[in-house]
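Hi support team,

I've been running sequence recovery on a batch of backbones for a student project. Most finish fine, but this one hangs at about 90% for roughly twenty minutes before it completes. I'm not sure whether the input is malformed or the queue is just slow. I've pasted the structure tokens below so you can try to reproduce it. Let me know if you need the job ID as well.

Thanks,
M.K.
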């Protein structure tokens, strides 16, 4: 399978899109999702919980709003109210899957699939 990694802006429109093999960990693609952007806060799920990534986000001057994994020895504090905004990524993926070629993955190669995802993302920006 293939994983779709996304970063979205505050209105839920895609900013960065990366594909990876299904067995890759989410955290390995986190720095690429930040890109050259200067966010005020970085929200993510427990898959992005890493001290190194949190330090990289704080070095940019952004707040880290990532819930700690359950097996963490020293849980990090995070804003639970702001954390609920993470659903914007899920909603963006939902809107991308409104495009039939993205939802059913007609494209066999990752290059072609990424092209269709980018086409769908451009269409979302143009609406």
């Amino acid at each position: 399978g293939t994983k779709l990694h996304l970063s979205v802006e505050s209105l839920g429109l895609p900013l960065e899109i990366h594909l990876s093999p299904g067995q890759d960990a989410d955290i390995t693609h986190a720095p690429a999702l930040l890109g050259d952007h200067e966010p005020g806060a970085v929200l993510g799920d427990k898959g992005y919980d890493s001290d190194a990534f949190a330090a990289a986000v704080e070095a940019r001057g952004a707040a880290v709003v990532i819930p700690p994994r359950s097996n963490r020895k020293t849980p990090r504090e995070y804003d639970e109210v702001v954390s609920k905004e993470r659903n914007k990524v899920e909603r963006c993926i939902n809107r991308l899957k409104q495009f039939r070629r993205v939802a059913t993955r007609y494209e066999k190669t990752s290059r072609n699939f990424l092209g269709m995802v980018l086409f769908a993302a451009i269409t979302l920006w143009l609406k």
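--
Follow-up from support: It reproduced on our side and the slowdown came from queue contention, not your input. The first strand starts at residue 2 and ends at 8. No action needed from you.
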